[in-house]
Batch of 2 targets.
Target 1
Amino acid sequence: MSKRKIVLAYSGGLDTTVIIPWLKENYDSEVVAVCIDVGQEADWAPVKRRALDMGVVACHVVDARKEYVEDYVWTALKANALYEDKYLLGTSTARPLIAKILVQYARKEGADAIAHGATGKGNDQVRFDLGIMAFAPDLEIIAPWRTWELKSREEEIEYLEKRGLPVPMKRSDSYSRDDNLWHISHEGLDLEDPANEPHLDSLLQMTVPPEKAPDKSEYVEIGFEEGVPVAVNGEKMDGVPLIQALNKLGGANGVGLVDLVENRVVGMKSRGVYETPGGAILYYAHQELEHICLDRQTYAFKQQVALKLGEVIYGGLWFTPLREALSAFVDSTQKTVTGTVKVKLYKGSISSAGVTSPYSLYNASIASFATGELYNHADAKGFIRLYGLPILVRALQHPSGV
């Protein structure tokens, strides 16, 4: 009888490295590792060798950066979707794509199960499981953190050491990190106490602490077409190099740092520090452009859609009719969100330095304090009386006596 075959989402980190021997020991299975490149800073050759040394029968490295940016990151950006006012959804946007690709490789390999390294306390288990279920409800999902006896990253390290297997990290640097083209997240160790200030000098990997950024401001221009960034400082770029360029600029100026105690999908609060330098610039610039391109009613309703879409993406509900419908609305609003935004970066801050668009709704003749042909000051009296009619009626019925 042939062994089972399990496809494992393999990052090369501690959790998924431990999972390889654990699956072989507990499932008597063949393990196929799938490394999905969504822009994380990884040298895939040694990662692949590590997986093979651990005993996988095959290791595939998939370059999904272009698809990640164009189909996932831009979807969130066009909406200005955030979670709990701060989080730019770095991990949340990547997990659905990873789940989709895992299913594709499970089908190619003839696997009957997919395994991932998400913990039983985290959000990623929800995102992975729902993504897999959306495309392959027949496949078993194995999440060792929900069943094994290992209780901590320290015990994972001991598990490998007892078997004479190499440990892919130092004990002194066991932060739980997730990185991709859009962001880097940091959790664990001293960050688990919200009273502790993050040690940014030793923690950050893509961004300098704001106080150590240059004393001189730096300007950058972002060009957009229908809500999608297409140029930096006048140079046309595809999504991947565009984000890479802005990560470098933003990181050097200390922008895009978020320290957040958030509400996880599973109900608990957790604390994380996020680096999203390029993303912070793009969100700011995109919103500035919308301020001149969208009318008041559309912009106001889009804010509500952004709030809901942020919750949907964070909660792993990417492959749902609701997410698709929300995104369809957002896309319809972006037809006129074309133009150029200039921003100033200085020691962790981002500020506007000018915005232009061929679709701008700003009309100087109307907005100017000088009287223009399109606006009659006298019209305001009748408008205000009708606008405030409910206030007038209530005052007549219930005098305040002030």
Target 2
Amino acid sequence: MCLSNVFLVSDDSEELVCEYASSVDVSGNEIRLTDVIGQEITVTGTILSVDLIRNQIKVKAG
């Protein structure tokens, strides 16, 4: 099972917004994250990077 932590990146910081994300759905600039227990979180922005080795996804806020 491959789960990732999702960080929201702004100009001067990174904030963990979803731990153990199991699903990422993108629609325009809205990104819906679903964690391993089924909780959904929606953030506005664009995906900057996906690191499958470190299990990290970085999203640029906005």
